[in-house]
Amino acid sequence: MRDENLPGFRNCTLDGICFVQQVVYILRVACNQPPETQVVEGIKLVELVNLSLVILHCLCRDRELLEMVVYYLLYPENLIVRESKILLPIYALNESHDEVVKKSAISVIEAAVHHPKMAAFFNENHGLINGLQHFARSVNPVIGNLAKESLKTIMLGGAMPRSVPPPYLRAKEKANTVPSLEVSASSTALPSAVPSPAQCSDRMNGESAMWQEPMEGAGEQIPEVGLSSFQLYE
Hints:
Protein name: Adaptin_N domain-containing protein
Number of helices: 10
CATH class: Mainly Alpha
Number of domains: 1
Shape: globular
CATH superfamily: Leucine-rich Repeat Variant
Helix content: 40-55%
Strand order of the largest sheet: 1-2
Mean pLDDT: 74
Strand content: 5-15%
Order of helices and strands: EEHEEHHEEHHHHHHH
Distance between the termini: 32 Å
Number of strands: 6
Radius of gyration: 17 Å
CATH architecture: Alpha Horseshoe
Organism: Heligmosomoides polygyrus (Parasitic roundworm)
Low-confidence stretches: 161-188, 200-216, 221-234
């Protein structure tokens, strides 16, 4: 997914449900499936989880979409998996036995902490901080550097602006250039129209004023192994 195509997803909707909310909803439904479930509507569950995470990771490269990803990941109904309060990427990281899914989950986490709200969420999670500190000492340079960068981002509160924004972010973008995600009519349920970040977040509006440059590193680093050796529950 090319960076210049990402802005088209900002206003992409289906029946009033924005693209980001649809992806997070699909991830939530997949994570809430019974352990014995292998296939959902003809799609392997592990592939459904991984694809949702990969899409979210890509969307995090755009500042406005990153804000939406964080908003919907932290929305109360999306923090519940099987009666436990937990962030969806964290759940996927802990529960999946698939190495590819673990890599995708870590990628979303690394990208999401570039947002101040998500950085604060992780900063309050001592299990995650301890785990990142452990992996910062890893003999694997990729994992060690990723852990160090994640910790630095969290300690800085998430905001890491680049000195020069990409040209496509300087120009006014056209909306609705990308078709919305299709949802099967046979799905057991559809996501309710959760208020958008702009509709129900004076705090987010205040924070958005400081977001004038694209994020350094958000959605760019992909680690090679998972963080499954420690618990990340809130």
